[in-house]
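Researcher: Quick one. two chains, 470 residues in total.
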Amino acid sequence: MSRRQLLSVAVVAAVALATGFLVAGQVKAQLLTPSNQVARYQALVRSVQDLEATNAGSRSQIAALRAQIDALESDAAGRSAVTQALQNQVADLRAHAGLTPLHGPGVEVELANGIPGPTTSGQASYLVNYQDVQDIVNLLFAQGAEGVAVNGRRITPLTAYSGSEGQVVIDQGPPQSSPLKLVAVGDRNRMVAALDDASALPDIRAREVQFQLHLSFFGSPDVPLPAYDSSLQIPHVSAI
Amino acid sequence: MSARFRPASRRRSTGRAISVWLIALLVALVATVQIRSQAEVERSLVGTDTTSLAFLIDDLHRANDSLQAEAADLQARQATLRSGTSGAADQVLTDEASRLRAIEGLVPVHGPGVVIVVDATGLTALDLQDAINNLTAGGGEATAVNDHRVVVGVAVEQTGSGVAIDGVVVNPPWTITTIGDASRLAEVADLMTNALRADRRVRQATYRVEADVAIRSVISARPFVYALGS
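Model:
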């Protein structure tokens, strides 16, 4: 066997050996299973994206319907003093329920994720969670807010917060994540003083120190709040 | 002779070369698949795990159902208003006013729901806020604690004397009454009371489902001082 033939055989053997190692490594690493996992994961992500698109479409439809109803009610109110009085009552109730846009003096609060660090709780404490948002909104209302919105989602009397680590779901909206911007209209000085109080929001303050969770705020002479664009159904409640 | 053997040798050599290239190609293919698969796994799994995604899908389905129900209700209202009859607008507005008064806690209400009783020492305003939020997220449509109506915007605060709702201290035991989808609320109440019973501060945590429960307490309407309509 010539030297060149020997070399060829050696190259083939080396390549075959490498192939063998790669195939064995692939089988051992159960690459097929992760590939299926990826496919399953991608299917789940696609489902979420489709549902979020439907969600956005429905909320736009609701906002448009409310505007059309408002216009029809105004037309009717123009023809009757009784209807006009009823419409004024409903307008006030809608404003308090968060169904109409508002503006006025207030505060803007920004809340953002911190930096991962050691924790004993087993939770990703450096991430903003829905309880943080709930605590800030409750503080703002307790200190003179007349309306609040979180990342453009208006808070209503029936608002509920949920979500997993790092995600905040408000009512029927899609999940929001850091950074979150809370805007409140109301007694600006009281709200700023409350946010400035070191004893308020103890959990967030502790995580500011431990994980550099970010909380900042400033008062403003005029901030806008959008109207609520989701469901306010109470099918199980009847007035006595 | 050499003219006869040379082509045969060249054929063998070409065959070996093709074999080597084929194997190399296979190696490259396998390596690419492996590296790309691993990268894809790593990239796609950053952020949310599949369990959280499954919960998110469930929540979005429920949310979208609620939104579609709201849209259908609004379309019905719009159709009534478009009918143009003299009483149609008045009826729509009267119904809307009643519904909004119930939502804002301005009128007494009743309906199916759950009643949770929690007797404890040392529970804070945050505990009560979490309990109320859990019930609202679980289908609660109206809530009262010890006959104090609670909606978002009513202050639930920690004071030196204990937890206060709208400035009035509510001493334990807390009776939390919630109206809404009774089966969903029962699931939430079950989870909540189980968790509370594991808390050292809690002496007792029970719940009962009721076909019709009344909430008679109301909130006083508060006119806006700062907010202006856009």
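Chain A has two domains: 32-93, 102-225.
Researcher: Thanks, that's what I needed.
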